[in-house]
Amino acid sequence: MNISRNFFLFLSENKLLNHAAKKWGLRLGASKVVAGTTIESAMKTIAGLNEAGLACTVDRLGEFVTDKQEALEAGQYCINTLHAIHEWKVDCHLSLKLTQLGLDIDKNLCMNNMRSIVQTANQYDIYVNIDMEDYSRYQTTLDILFALRKEFDNVGTVIQSYLYRANEDIDHLQGVPLRLVKGAYKESADVAMQEKADIDKNFLHLIKKHLSHGSYTAIATHDHEIIEQVKAFVHENQIAYHSFEFQMLYGFRHDLQQQLANEGYRVCSYVPFGNDWYGYFMRRLAERPQNIKLAVKSMLSNS
Questions:
Q1: Where does substrate bind (predicted)?
Q2: Binding residues for FAD
Q3: 52-65 in b/e burial notation, b at 16+ Cβ within 10 A?
């Protein structure tokens, strides 16, 4: 199965296929995990999820932008998405990647983009989450977050539990809303744990620590064992349900998302959309063999 994982990760980085995929549209099963290509299609999906009792975070797919104009357009698109969230009156916040907003071009360009986005979101009382990318961009992402937090309190980020420094960073991020994840990038053993058992153990430790700090915590996992342990912890420690949420990907484990929502927990569905869906979809296929079956089934049903 590692061969399949590496194969799909390889495909995810193929620029020729990515370019072609924008012309194909959401075929080959991608429509099951990507909420269309437009802001309107995303809002319709989010409205439906809200009706089912699920909150949402929306992400316009795209990353690793190297053209200044494209970065500026991406920033404006994020602002347009915020306008739509406000106009549609949906329970939804915004997730974004700094490399889409010019981080790899110029840090000041990215910072200006982010300031405009967070300022607009603040006017609408919408939260903005900065997705964490690979380790080479980790510290810069935190630097931008801390700079923004001096002006705004409606912005947070992601901490990856496989990083050795995650525990220390959690201490510096008390009071900051965080999405906690295990970590999906292939990082060096010098900076990241490599064994699943170690990562899972640290993941649960970080969740308990941030919750104990009284800081809002988004627990991003489909791991039912972790979820059950978190449920036991919050009950034992009388942690209010409004101080955390379970977060899962749109199109995956909808049954579990609905079950948790029915039990009274806040559940947030991570809803991606946009033309630049190919890389995201390939990485989802790389994560679990079940996702490949989903794609094939959808392709056959649409043929």
A1: 97, 283-284
A2: 132, 160, 182-184, 196, 221-222
A3: ebbbbbbbbbbbeb
Residue 261 belongs to domain with CATH number: 3.20.20.220
The structure tokens 């969230």 sit at 85
State the pLDDT at residue 62: 82
- Give the annotated binding-site residues: 97, 132, 160, 182-184, 196, 221-222, 283-284
Residue 137 a catalytic site member: no
Q: Does residue 67 carry a catalytic annotation? A: no
DSSP state of 177: -
Check: CB of residue 71 under 8 Å from CB of residue 98: no
The interaxial angle of helices 278-287 and 289-302, nearest 10 deg, is: 130
Q: Which of 179, 200, 266, 276 is catalytic?
A: 179
Do 81 and 94 touch, CB atoms closer than 8 A?
A: yes
User: Taking CA 58 as the corner, what is the angle to CA 114 and CA 162, rounded to the nearest 5 degrees?
Assistant: 80
pLDDT in tens, 182-232: 988 878 999 999 998 999 999 999 999 999 999 999 999 999 999 999 999
pLDDT tens-digit readout, 140-158? 999 999 999 999 999 999 9
Tell me if 12 is assigned to some domain.
no
Q: Which residues are annotated as a binding site for substrate?
A: 97, 283-284
> According to the model, what pLDDT value does residue 299 have?
44
- Phi and psi angles of residue 102, each rounded to the nearest 5 degrees, phi first: 100, 15
Task: Please tell me the total count of domains within the chain.
Answer: 1
Catalytic entry in 59, 131, 200, 276:
131
Does residue 170 form part of some domain? yes
What pLDDT, on a 0 to 100 scale, did the predictor assign at position 29?
56
Domain limits for position 130: 35-276
- What is the reported pLDDT for 137? 97
